[in-house]
């Protein structure tokens, strides 16, 4: 273990080739395994309690490695009947910004994808401008920078 300017660095043995041949689920499991191996080394070296790390790893496993994030606050439509929440679904090969529409009771009506790309926080930050209802059925995500506005509509019943 090396201390470089207050940052501890450790090495974990593993094959990049074998990792690249794993399916998405395998990559998630291997990444968590490597992360926990490194955290345990740091915890031992620095005499830290590793229980918090173990709990976090268990929660990741219990969530079946699903990485979903709500972006900002949900917004109610003008009639106050439906709310829309921007979400980011982050997977190994693809990340998707979508809108989750919910009724007054919080039941999810639909999840509508807006844009998908390779997972990269710098690529996705450009999409995250203003988010607002256009009317009672349509929301708009206006990008920070260049690019077209993105729209999603509440699916019609039936």
What is the element layout, followed by pairings?
Layout: E1 2-4, E2 7-9, H1 16-20, H2 24-46, H3 51-62, E3 68-76, E4 82-90, E5 95-103, E6 108-117, H4 121-125, E7 130-133, E8 138-142, E9 150-153
Characteristics:
4-stranded antiparallel beta sheet, 4 helices, 3-stranded antiparallel beta sheet, alpha+beta, 35% strand, 9 strands, 158 residues
Q: Strand-and-helix sequence, N→C?
A: EEHHHEEEEHEEE
- Using only C-alpha atoms, the radius of gyration works out to 20 Å
Helix/strand/pairing category: alpha+beta
Strand line-up in the sheet with most strands: 3-4-5-6
What general outline do the C-alpha atoms trace? Answer: elongated
Main β sheet profile: 4 strands, antiparallel
Q: What is the mean predicted local confidence, pLDDT? A: 91
**How many β-strands, per DSSP?**
9
Q: Report the β-strand fraction as a percent range.
A: 35-45%
Low-confidence stretches: none
Fraction of residues in H or I helices = 25-40%
If you had to describe this structure to a student in words, what would you say it looks like?
With 158 residues, this protein is of the alpha+beta class. Helix content is 28%, strand content 35%. It has four helices and nine strands; from the N terminus they run E-E-H-H-H-E-E-E-E-H-E-E-E. Strands 3-4-5-6 form a four-stranded antiparallel beta sheet, with no helix packed on it. A three-stranded antiparallel beta sheet has the order 7-8-9, with no helix packed on it. Helix 2 (24-46) packs antiparallel against helix 3 (51-62). The protein is elongated, with a radius of gyration of 20 Å. The termini are far apart. 8% of the residues are buried.
